[in-house]
Amino acid sequence: MKAKYYKTKENRIIACTLCPHQCVLLPGKSGICRVRENQDGHMALPFYGKISALALDPIEKKPLYHFFPGKMILSVGFWGCNLRCPFCQNYSISQKTKGHSELLSPQELVKKVYERGSFALAYTYSEPLVHWEYLMETVKLAREAGIKNVLVSNGHLEEAPARELLAYIDAANIDLKGFQEDFYAKEIKGSLEAVKNFIRLASEMTSLEVTTLVIPGKNNSPDEIEEIAVFLASLNREMAYHLSAYYPCYEYDAPPTEPAELMSLGQIASKHLSYVYLGNIGADNNTYCLHCGNLLVLRKGYSVKVQGIANNCCAQCGKKVPIISE
């Protein structure tokens, strides 16, 4: 597969233009993602089709609460990432490129969706965007086959490749890891502005939900969470926003997020957003109609029952709801 989004420079040096890092690669070197490599002056994709994980998950695990709630979705993971989050829960595949892999062509992966009885394919676990060429071929084949495409990502991508990909994405959950440029630049080696731009674009092009992992002492101030909520509300007040509790992982040993703190931050976000959900604390994450209070979706962990929606409208008052369920 031929790579896209790079420029050839003198002396067989190339510049990657896929993500905001804009890595300049000498021959034999790879970018920060570790999966795009300069081979003799050309961008190579040595991890094309190398799958690190493949599993059938509840769609709520992505998390997606407003896109076919209660469904199981075939989820595929890759290797590498273009961020360096020291709290990454999937660091064994995002921060490494060595381990057991299953080689699957896009055609074979789409076939797996039918074999597993899924209605959709989620690109998730590590960072799928750094495998842009593989994604592009797969999402097109899936769309042709009537299979939904779901993206779970850090959103750290330039606008041109983002537009190309999002044209084939039916739903996405994007991590907004904080709202301080300094945190993005120093802590996780990325660009907040680039992620905000991706979220703006995704909100226009697909069914979008956003997640923030709340880390004590890092991104848990009430002011910061309110800033995030105001930003998301400026795009779509009915966008689902997930505040998730942090637990020590990888290089972080800070204490876990207190449930009471997460609930307090959820109340702050709810002043601006209609649908705020709390993750990793066993919270009541039911969805109710904004107009009449009718219970639309009942959730107990990953046990989900859609009981108040008919034709994407509230079954009681008839108002349209921002949940795609059929």
Quick recap of the structure?
25% of the residues lie in helices and 25% in strands.
Which helices and strands appear, and what pairs or packs with what?
Elements: E1 6-8, E2 14-16, E3 24-25, E4 37-39, E5 42-44, E6 50-51, E7 53-58, E8 72-77, H1 91-94, E9 102-103, H2 106-115, E10 120-123, H3 132-144, E11 148-153, H4 159-166, E12 171-175, H5 181-187, H6 192-205, E13 207-214, H7 222-235, E14 240-245, H8 259-269, E15 275-279, E16 287-288, E17 295-300, E18 303-306, E19 309-310, E20 313-314
Parallel strand pairs: 8-10, 10-11, 11-12, 12-13, 13-14, 14-15
Antiparallel strand pairs: 1-2, 2-3, 4-5, 6-9, 7-8, 16-17, 17-18, 19-20
Helix pairs in contact: 2-3, 4-6, 7-8
Structural summary, described in words:
The chain has helices at 91-94, 106-115, 132-144, 159-166, 181-187, 192-205, 222-235, 259-269; strands at 6-8, 14-16, 24-25, 37-39, 42-44, 50-51, 53-58, 72-77, 102-103, 120-123, 148-153, 171-175, 207-214, 240-245, 275-279, 287-288, 295-300, 303-306, 309-310, 313-314. With 326 residues, the protein is an alpha/beta fold. The strands form 6 sheets. The chain has an 8-stranded mixed beta sheet. It has a 3-stranded antiparallel beta sheet with strand order 1-2-3, with no helix packed on it. The protein is globular. The model has no long low-confidence stretch (mean pLDDT 97).
